[in-house]
Model the fold of this input.
Amino acid sequence: MQAPSVEEFQTAHAALRNQVIRTPTLTLAHALFRERFPADVQVRAKLELFQHAYSFKARGAILGIRQLTPEQRSAGVVAASGGNHAIAVSWAARAVGVNASIFMPETADRLRIDACRKLGAKVTLVSDIAKAFDMMLETEQSEGRTIMHPFEARHMTLGAGSCGIELLEDAADSDIFVIPVGGGGLISGMSAVIRQARPGAKIFGVEPVGADTMFRSLEEGKPVTIANVDTIADSLGSPYALPYSFEISRQNVSAIARVTDDEIRSAMRLYFDALRLIAEPACAAALAAVCGPLKEICAGQKVAIIACGSNISLERYDRILGQ
Done:
């Protein structure tokens, strides 16, 4: 369970150069941020919400689909997702001319469902995310499609690593890196790249209290499954960790910080008030951690965070902030 080498990350990053957007890294210097931040901190945010398909997932998805054999392209791909990965796979499949079948929970944001369909994917709605994963596996067998897993795949780790390479180019002197955690694809790739370049840096993952799968897995020393996912940050709501992304994270991550839904809501409001950004809950998680459980640790430090994506309808955004 070794992470890709430096050379493999660099090769993937080079392959993505003309495929994805080189998203900006912004110093969060607005007075509204300073009122909430730790003392004497500098915070820089990589804005992956401006990526193709509006999330970092586009990086790994296009890598995965471009590595398919001609036979696999002909058979098509299948994925299960609550939203961001579904849109990224739909986008990448359309870019390469591959048929995509996507399974999504009925509770998924309508904007995400519609986005996949507009990109040409076949979307099937099922009762919940666990059923979506079951149907993904069944479809692999019945239709011969290739699975595009949302996090447990080398191409997803490599895609996330390319995001880490860019963040290091923009904020190499950071003392602390704060990265959202869903299943573990983003933090596995980013932490591996950052740890190789900055062995002394602190790397924190961020999970919702109601979906703290990686936190519990690191405590137990093995991937675990949680009985219930209960958070507004559905993009971070994986009910389990898996061996590959877990082991890479275990080797490189300093610790996992947990944030409440109210802390996430507060960070969503802060992004809007200071920058007029409509951030979905997962996108606001890293900022929530800096203003919350990591506040004392970040004081006086240079901190880099990820605004990982934003696929959310105005209706759901307003409903979450009204709760």
